[in-house]
Protein: 17 kDa surface antigen
Amino acid sequence: MSKRTVTVTLAGCLALSACQSAPTSQAVVDRNAEFGCVAGTVGGAIVGGLIGSTIGSGTGQIAAIGGGIGLGGLLGNRLTCA
Structure:
C-alpha cells in the first residue's frame, strides 16, 4: 500500500476513536464494556479500510478506503455496543 493509503486509513481510525465519550467513574464492568465498544469500532474501521483498499485504483481507491473505514467503524460499533 502507498503512504497515502496508510495515512488515510490511520486518520480515519483516529477520527473514529476520538468520537468516544470520556470515561466516567462507574464500575469496572462498565469500563470493560466501553473498551469492547471502542475496540469494535476501531477494529471495524481497520478491517473496512483494508477491504476498501482492494477496490478500485487512484482516487477511486482513496474514496473506497474512506467509505470502508466509515462503514466498517459503524458496523463494528453496532455489533459491539449495546
Summary: The radius of gyration is 14 Å. The mean pLDDT is 78.
